[in-house]
């Protein structure tokens, strides 16, 4: 049924997507969202859907290998970036939700990354991402935006096995951030906080603050 209200975990995912769409972080069909499903596996947005008005039919339930378990829209296929979500759920079993957004600020900030890392300014906001030290040195992992998504996922899986990021997030160069949390609420807070930090970095450079300290 067109426009039907979303149910189960999809309700929170659709609300988060609408919120990000309104902020310009999921324009067009950009971005994807997932949450572990009480029925097993995880719900993820179907590929190529507009994120401003998602309904039940815009989600697909897949298992941890990405195999489809449930697809309310028979034409739908899981997000092209499902393998990235799989890599994160596998690496961090406590993760309940993963949001991937495309913001302008993230793509500008990515230019300042070096050797696969982007040093974040020691803003108070970092505490909301779980780092409570004074003047912390926080590096966000940055990955190349390879044309074949499973190649990016393989790099992510390999790196997450070697090192746990200091904050629950990673960045794909000239593409966007992927952020996670124990549930949709935590993932939403983390996404907003990280995007605030990117916005600060860009604004500080424009204000001539030198670096972004
Ligand atoms: C229009 S954005 C290009 C694809 C992408 O990066 C994205 O996040 C959305 O892909 P999906 O398959 O999840 O719709
Ligand atoms: Zn993307």
Automatic annotation (TrEMBL):
Keywords: Amino-acid biosynthesis, Lyase, Metal-binding, Methionine biosynthesis, Zinc. It comes from the Bacteria. Gene3D superfamilies: Class II aldolase/adducin N-terminal domain. Binds 1 zinc ion per subunit. InterPro entries: Aldolase_class_II_sugar_metab, Aldolase_II/adducin_N, Aldolase_II/adducin_N_sf, MethylthioRu-1-P_deHdtase_MtnB. The keyword Metal-binding applies. Pfam families: Aldolase_II. GO terms for molecular function: methylthioribulose 1-phosphate dehydratase activity. It is an enzyme of class 4 (lyase). Its cofactor is Zn(2+). Pathway: Amino-acid biosynthesis; L-methionine biosynthesis via salvage pathway; L-methionine from S-methyl-5-thio-alpha-D-ribose 1-phosphate: step 2/6. Residues 11-202 form the Class II aldolase/adducin N-terminal domain. The keyword Metal-binding applies. It catalyses: 5-(methylsulfanyl)-D-ribulose 1-phosphate = 5-methylsulfanyl-2,3-dioxopentyl phosphate + H2O. Its EC number is 4.2.1.109. Zn(2+) binds at residues 100, 102. HAMAP family: Salvage_MtnB (MF_01677). Catalyzes the dehydration of methylthioribulose-1-phosphate (MTRu-1-P) into 2,3-diketo-5-methylthiopentyl-1-phosphate (DK-MTP-1-P). Belongs to the aldolase class II family. MtnB subfamily. This is Methylthioribulose-1-phosphate dehydratase. It comes from Thermithiobacillus plumbiphilus. The gene is mtnB.
């Amino acid at each position: 049924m067109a426009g039907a209200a979303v149910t189960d975990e999809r309700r929170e995912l659709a609300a988060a997507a609408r919120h990000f769409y309104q902020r310009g972080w999921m324009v067009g069909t950009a971005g994807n969202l997932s949450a572990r499903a009480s029925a097993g596996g995880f719900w993820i947005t179907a590929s190529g859907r507009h994120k401003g008005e998602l309904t039940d039919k815009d989600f697909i339930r897949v298992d941890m290998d990405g195999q489809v378990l449930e697809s309310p829209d028979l034409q739908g296929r899981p997000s092209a970036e499902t393998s990235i979500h799989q890599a994160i759920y596998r690496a961090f079993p406590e993760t309940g939700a993963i949001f991937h957004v495309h913001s302008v600020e993230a793509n500008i900030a990515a230019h300042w990354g070096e050797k696969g890392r982007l040093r974040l300014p020691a803003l108070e906001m970092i505490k909301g991402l779980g780092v409570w030290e004074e003047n912390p040195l926080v590096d966000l992992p940055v990955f190349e935006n390879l044309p074949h998504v499973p190649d990016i996922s393989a790099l992510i899986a390999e790196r997450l096995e070697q090192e746990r990021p200091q904050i629950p997030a990673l960045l794909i160069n000239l593409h966007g951030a992927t952020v996670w949390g124990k549930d949709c609420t935590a993932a939403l807070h983390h996404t907003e906080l990280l995007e605030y930090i990117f916005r600060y970095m860009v604004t500080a450079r424009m204000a001539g603050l030198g670096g972004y300290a």
